[in-house]
Known about the structure:
By secondary structure, the protein is mostly beta strands. It is 5% helix and 53% strand. Strands 1-2-3-5-6-9-10-11-12-13-14-15 form a twelve-stranded antiparallel barrel. Strands 7-8 form a two-stranded antiparallel ribbon. The protein is globular. The two termini are 33 Å apart.
Amino acid sequence: MKKVKIVLSLLLLAAVPVSAAKDKSKDEAAVLPDVEMIDVPTAGILDYYGFMVKTRFYSGGGVLGSLNFGVLERLNLGAAMTSDGLIGSESPKMRRPEIQVKFRFYDGGYYIPALAAGYDSQGYYYSAADKKYLEKGKGLYLVGSKELGVPGLVLHGGFNVPDFDNNYLFGFLGVNYTLEEKVAFMLEYDSLFHSNDPARLNAGTRIYITPYFQLDLAVREIGRDGTFKGGLPRKAERIVQLRYNTSF
């Protein structure tokens, strides 16, 4: 019963009735720029006084919840936390909260993409034995986003250092195409450059139920069939995400 209450709470947070303020100059709301795709960040940020609630349902009955705020005009701050086994018959295991920060320092021009720097420690596949995520979070990253000459088609790419123990530099690429502000198709290639941490191919669809509430259906690690160190399975994973963003 306790787990059911937690799940319902997360769903209610992600599906709050839309009472957001509309565009001051129009009577209809516009879809806000995406601040992230599936695992890959973008150079988009939440507006000042904006906030976003995200709930991700992943393999093994796990749930990831995050909350981000636009605390300044170009600065977003937030936190995320996972709970393995929250949905199902097993006892849920809550993991420590992780921090998320993003600062957009350039809005982009004709040739140069919009640029943002950030830090995100939220990883995936937590190992209780090692007390760490087997798929590390982005860590410190730099990302650029640029429309590719076709309305709604945007390329995202950047570099990241997941931790400061090894200081390895990784890369990531993503592209999304938004069709009539109703649905978006996403494709991303993550964790590039290092064979001991194989690259991930992810794909998904984002459905804009309202301008402020989106449903994501995605598959991570397409074509993957192996194990992490320690024997934990590493296979293609289906996820569902609920995202709600608005402003105070």
